[in-house]
Request: fold
Amino acid sequence: SQQQPQQPPQQEKKIASQASVFICLSDIRLLACDARVIPSSDFIHSKVPYNKAWLRNVDCTKDPSVEPVGVLFPRVGRIIGISPNFPDCYACNIAVVEEFPEIVSADIPKEKWKTIIDWLVEGVRQSITLISNDLRDKQPRNGRFRHLIALPVVGTGYGGGGMNTGMILEGLIGLLSSVSRTNDVDIALVCAERPTYALAQRWRLSRNHSELWPSLTELHKKQAVELANYAKSSKLALFLGAGVSAGAGLPTWSQLLKLVYDKLCSDPSSEKVEENFESASQTRQASILLQMCGGSKQKLGENVRAQLETKTFSLVHSIIASLPVNQVITTNYDRLFESASDSVEVMAKNRPYADELLSVLPYQPIKNHSRWILKLHGCITHPEDIVITDEDYENFSKSKMSALAGIVQGAMMTTHLLFIGFGMRDANYLRITNSVRDALGNNVQEPSDLGISLQLIKFPETESNGVLPQNIYMIDNENGNISEAACILEEFLDYFVANSVSISGFLLDDRFTEALNEDEMNLRNCVLQFADELIKIPQTTPGHQEATNLLNDLGFSQTRHDLSQTKKNQQKKTFLQKLLS
Reply:
């Protein structure tokens, strides 16, 4: 018989996205993920091993309890009773004060603290390894390319190690980078306070970037730093589309319309229509839905709202909420960016972007507060106002929303507008872009003058329309995987934000002194001498408030600088004794 030609060996598909560690300044209880690590005490012997506040907003099928795993993972237990619609939760014994009761002493040698931190890190390693094993046969939630595990900066609160948060943080980040790659899972380390977040970002930026952001090319990093420079100089505004909310499990635009259609088809009170829904354009599909609602915009809006209600925001929301950006525009109806903003510095007495401090235009304008979000197409809190049908789009320029379009034009003219998760075919977007191009005239020299768009994959048609902004592609190949590209986008945003935010907020915080290098310690001592002198000067002196603000930005408000070292140690001892009792 004739010999068949030998087939060349099939090449294994290259994976562009690598497992990564993300740093967020947020509320871990509201972050959409596959699993969460919950700090606990010795759950085998304790009746109440963890603070139930960790399960806020989590639906349970029964009263939650901890199920020990066994000898391979003695420090980790599965929390039983969590609804399958919510992330799996795992208790990790990180109670330093129970394992090392000697830390109630006034002074603990640095070598002893290294032993304590090794013990903490081992508990986290056991947790990530067990969770990764449990998730291996499950699909990642919300269409992610790989599983996402979230954990707080363990051991720094009631665990008892708070006075050495800096050393604990460095030990954690060093471990997470390794264990993330070993188990091929993404990990979000969620900080509750800005000084901790600042030190985490400083630590990462001073290390090997190729290991900490492994999926990014050198071009990606260069582009991210350019965007960061815009953000730091208050020259950046955000424009958020539906892709930002996809990571929280919300539907895309086409999926939303189909979900509402299916719901109305099963509703006996809905009007029947002859027109074929599947073959209609998306805006026409929305008009068909309005007909099925008997022409009631309120009913249609309420059906839309029912599909967009969720208790958790996406990783992208959590990352970008910390950006030093005051102008945010969105065509999304949901409130997830507002929720993520409200969660920044969740433990602070004065959260910088709390709900009551964020202007939501046009529904909740607040004077004397600089950050605002413009809901260009309406909001689920006002379902009757949403822009969704053919008629809505046609009337957009004639309605009160036209004033909002003017705000978008102003942002395009005065800032660099960054589009994230936004469909470039939106009729209103193209109309606004064209009007800005007309207004700027010959001043439009290049696409970036109209904004910068973060695109997942480069398709040939994305370059064919001259009105589009400058595009930054996560995968420069039309055959790329969309969900994989979305992971690279998360990593790009993480790197971009790390280069945008202040990384000095830990300098004067006593919990981080062990993590300071020699230059930082010298600067700290110099600034503290300045603080000692500033206290003696009347607060009414011109420039005093500005000097005070500078100290606060460097973490001075977090310190107990006004207490003697003896009082500090006594306060620490009293606190830890209460934990032991």
